[in-house]
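worker-3 :: picked Nocturnin
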Amino acid sequence: MGGAGGKIYRSVSRVDLTASAIEEEQPVRSWYLQRAKLDGSLIGQVPEMRRLYREQLKTVQLPLPRAETSGSNEQMIRILQWNLNCLCGIDGQHPQSASEILKLVEQSTADILLFQEAPAGPAQTWWYEPWRSSFPFREMRRLEDQLRKMGYTTQLRSECFSQTLLCSIFRVREMQHLSLDIEHSFRYQMDEERNALHAVLHFGAKEDQSDDHIISVYATHFHHENFTLDAQGVRRSEASVLLKHAEHAKGPVLVASDFNQARRQDYDEEEWKVVAAGLASVKQPEDDGVHQLFTEHNFRCAYDVARQRNWPISKAPPFTHWTGTTVDYPYVRSSAKRRLRRNGEGSFGWAQAGGRRPSKPKQAGHV
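worker-3 :: tokens ->
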């Protein structure tokens, strides 16, 4: 997740919600959601939603916060997740430089990077517009090259159009690709299918051949079209395929992805009315069933179990997308030997039993 940084969820509000602008520092919620609660005509108005998103990001403070790890006897792993929208900006029409991304990555000191919508390129004739015309192929290469120089020598991509790029300072012990759209009938109506990359990463000494220092990571991106208004659509089916595979995964398991679905529990009643109306306008469900399915398979959303957060009010970040919603979530499952948790500021840690992207609003939109 990305797009801005710093004490990301505290800023000075400049949106005129009533007669006068609010100037004091306050816990941040999506400006769009707050405006739309008062003026329903704004719901689904993409240009205004994006304008408010851009303006709100300008108030974000840098540098990025870092989780406190001193004095801990736990192994900490930092995860950064970010939907890059093909490096084409919020609307897919404005190519972006790799420099700002690299700057935030360097500040985060993350061990594992998960970049959704990060195709290798170059752009192909069958790509959708405007990405086909806007995709900055050289900047994507520069991003990869500079990340290698920063120590992210492991670089792997999922095998589909909407590729997820996994980068890490850890070594790869095993990897597999799996198609997620094999168990539902909607695949014949889809313009593209989604894939997941499963990588077992080893962070112990080279000579260590045990499973004591591994983590299983799934790099993926669930489909933006659910094809139903209930929990029997595409995304739940994709989650089911992934979770069946994860039953046999080694070590603690991380699934940090753009799930393309907000959770009701992360909003107040009036905010959710706006979110629900927006989802209805694009014929998407209020609940696609994915969160419940992950919970039933013993995964926990890291936002829900965090010890610390750098945002107030809710468990999840206030938003990770220009729609004012949070659609990017890290789910974790412990292994039999270790208990995995997330502290909410970008670090994963685990300790012997018994004994996370810095989370930021992302600049990307959806393909």
